[in-house]
Design a protein that fits this description.
mainly beta, two-stranded antiparallel ribbon, elongated
Length: 79
Amino acid sequence: MGQGFVDFGGSILRSDLRFEVGTERSSLYLFIDNVTNEDDVTTPSDDQGLFAAFGAQFDGLLGTRLRPRTIGAGLRMKF
């Protein structure tokens, strides 16, 4: 793998789940983002930018990665 080589991996399947119950004034929701915990680069780049300015070298892919699985809950209220 040479400098500046960008390897586009396989396809990415990112799934999110959301369950919400509520009334006209309030709702409670539960969510799971990235259900399958997919770990891949979504926006590949071979630009090392600031890293290269400080002498760091990378053999491989830089870019924006998917966030890991996130599980949470929330409450909405209308006043």
